């Protein structure tokens, strides 16, 4: 409803909520019951000095007749005993599997490892390491003794091949410095072995 002289149209927005129930008496007859409430702004708007909103409520009841009746499809019956028996069987199998697992864990925890003692003779080629002071490629007296022992072993086994390799501690120098130092140490050991004959 638009008052005279008011060219703007207005819309009223309200809310409605309800609850409906249907009771099947048999395949042809049903009873219907519905309760509903609504609230909306007053049609009088600001003209009225009273309430600015209107509320309505309604309750309806009725009966319905379905010609030919409803064709109900009954739910298939379930053999509850068979279902429960199957569930119990699965529970039993699960309990048995858990018991087997626990037994295996206990057996592993309590098992004593089998220790086999193996004795093997290894031919020792004598002192293999010549040690140097940090940052040095000079042989000390201890290193010279090891060179003499290694030279005796080399002379006693002329058919064997030996490798001379130099190393340096990577924590005490740069990579390039350590590479040069390693090569110099290997050369010092090689020269000392050659000098021993």
UniProtKB/TrEMBL annotation:
<dbReference type="Pfam" id="PF00691">
    <property type="entry name" value="OmpA"/>
</dbReference>
<protein>
    <recommendedName>
        <fullName>OmpA-like domain-containing protein</fullName>
    </recommendedName>
</protein>
<dbReference type="GO" id="GO:0016020">
    <property type="term" value="C:membrane"/>
</dbReference>
<keyword id="KW-0175">Coiled coil</keyword>
<feature type="coiled-coil region">
    <location>
        <begin position="80"/>
        <end position="107"/>
    </location>
</feature>
<keyword id="KW-0472">Membrane</keyword>
<dbReference type="InterPro" id="IPR006665">
    <property type="entry name" value="OmpA-like"/>
</dbReference>
<dbReference type="InterPro" id="IPR036737">
    <property type="entry name" value="OmpA-like_sf"/>
</dbReference>
<feature type="domain" description="OmpA-like">
    <location>
        <begin position="119"/>
        <end position="197"/>
    </location>
</feature>
<dbReference type="InterPro" id="IPR050330">
    <property type="entry name" value="Bact_OuterMem_StrucFunc"/>
</dbReference>
<dbReference type="InterPro" id="IPR011250">
    <property type="entry name" value="OMP/PagP_B-barrel"/>
</dbReference>
